[in-house]
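Quick review question:
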């Protein structure tokens, strides 16, 4: 499936072919306030980082003798080089890698950690209270620094991956020691293994009590769940633990065919299992994935294959777990399937744009025909624009909100009513949507006249 819009709606920078005359919409001057965050020159666009809560920004600025980070308009210390700008999930901690002389540091809220010969990007726990990173020592060995405490040194840290459990209490990562590989969880080594599964990754259950990953032993692959190896297979792909932690599913190769093993039971063989499609419902009762057979793709829900398509993209369960929606490609067109009902066909359906209302009763997404883009809500097209993004339902599920570009200006649209005040660009964190602080109040970051503003807006 194709992606066709950027993470950021660049009102003044996005280059599109002529879209034709857009239908005039009602403009409203909704109650709003603008709080200046920082100067925002065009040279900041390449390095900008928006905090996950969508309220802070940082970027790298040139300085005499090197570079410096600028966060919320405040300049940090100058270093030879600055990289890997990162905010904690709660937005309270700002961290990055910085080069000083021949050494590298991690700087978190102005406090330096190091120096080391090299460092990886900072990684935060979900609550933002813990931070870890990979560091290289003068002898070339690597270690993981957790909460400012250096761990045991190893030959390598597997792909630089560090995983925190959702409750933030546990941490795990893969390491190489000599010719063998191990998984280190809470400072305890599990292994040795011949190799670790890159595609499968390392997964904690939501409550942090279970740990699963893929490892190679005696030239066979197996999922290791809570230290116990599952039946061996020829290869492994994605793996998933259900939200309640009671179920395990993974894609595997047996006898030259791919299949999904769920709760220890292998499913029907197929030519391929769609990467990133293995998905449990929120209540853990349903399991879905995309499977290819006879060069056609079908979504398999609880072991039952759906209709064939030329491709399957994003898959998403409704919040109440009752229905599955997914994007599909048929020939040159794309559509959204809700349950087992295919929707209207478009030139493109935006990857990652499927959004359910909080109750799960309504579905919206973004689509395109030729060079015009629009929201589709309950399978009904909304007004067309040069670009549309950040599609969001209001908390009561009654209305849809999104950002749109018309010409060189960007603005919010609520139920086909355009905001009269317009900006050069609207910015959000990757994968972000509008955040509501009350049933009718939301906020976002916007660029106007070379400055970044935090905009608080209120529905009519």
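Suggested answer, residue by residue:
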């Amino acid at each position: 499936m194709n992606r066709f819009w950027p993470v950021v709606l660049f009102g003044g920078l996005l280059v599109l072919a002529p879209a034709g005359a857009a239908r005039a919409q009602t403009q409203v001057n909704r109650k709003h306030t603008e709080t200046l965050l920082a100067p925002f020159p065009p040279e900041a666009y390449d390095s900008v980082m928006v905090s996950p809560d969508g309220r802070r920004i940082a970027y790298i600025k040139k300085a005499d003798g090197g570079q410096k980070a600028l966060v919320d308009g405040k300049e940090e210390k100058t270093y030879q080089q600055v990289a890997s700008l990162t905010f904690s999930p709660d937005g309270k901690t700002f961290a990055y890698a910085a080069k000083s002389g021949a050494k590298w540091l991690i700087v978190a809220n102005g406090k330096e950690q190091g120096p080391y010969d090299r460092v990886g990007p900072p990684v935060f726990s979900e609550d933002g209270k813990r931070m870890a990173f990979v560091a290289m020592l003068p002898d070339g060995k690597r270690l993981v620094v957790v909460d400012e405490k250096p761990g045991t040194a190893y030959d390598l840290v597997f792909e630089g991956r560090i995983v925190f459990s959702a409750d933030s209490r546990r941490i795990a990562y893969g390491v190489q020691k000599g010719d063998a590989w191990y998984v280190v969880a809470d400072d305890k080594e599990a292994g040795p293994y011949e190799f670790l599964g890159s595609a499968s990754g390392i997964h904690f259950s939501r409550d942090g009590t279970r740990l699963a990953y893929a490892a190679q032993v005696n030239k066979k692959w197996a999922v290791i769940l809570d230290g116990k190896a599952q039946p061996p297979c020829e290869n492994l792909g994605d793996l998933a633990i259900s939200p309640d932690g009671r179920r395990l599913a993974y894609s595997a190769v047996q006898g030259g065919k791919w299949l999904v093993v769920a709760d220890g039971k292998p499913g029907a063989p197929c030519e391929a299992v769609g990467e990133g499609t293995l998905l449990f419902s929120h209540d853990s009762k349903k399991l879905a994935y995309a499977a290819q057979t006879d060069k056609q793709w079908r979504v398999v829900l609880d072991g039952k294959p759906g209709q064939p398509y030329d491709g399957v993209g994003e898959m998403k369960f409704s919040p109440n777990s009752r229905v599955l929606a997914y994007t599909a490609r048929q020939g040159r067109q794309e559509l959204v399937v809700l349950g087992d009902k295919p929707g209207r066909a478009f030139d493109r359906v935006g990857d990652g744009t499927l959004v359910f209302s909080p109750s799960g009763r309504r579905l919206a997404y973004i689509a395109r025909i030729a060079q015009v883009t629009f929201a589709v809500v309950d399978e009904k097209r909304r007004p067309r624009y040069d670009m549309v993004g950040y599609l969001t339902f209001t908390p009561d599920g009654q209305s849809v909100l999104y950002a749109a570009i018309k010409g060189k200006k960007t603005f919010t649209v609520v139920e086909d009513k355009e905001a009269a005040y317009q900006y050069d660009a609207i910015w959000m964190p990757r994968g972000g949507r509008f955040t509501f602080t009350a049933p009718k109040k939301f906020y976002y970051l916007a660029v106007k006249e070379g400055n970044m503003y935090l905009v608080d807006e209120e529905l009519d």
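Why it works: Residues 9-458 form one domain. The chain has no helices and 52 strands.
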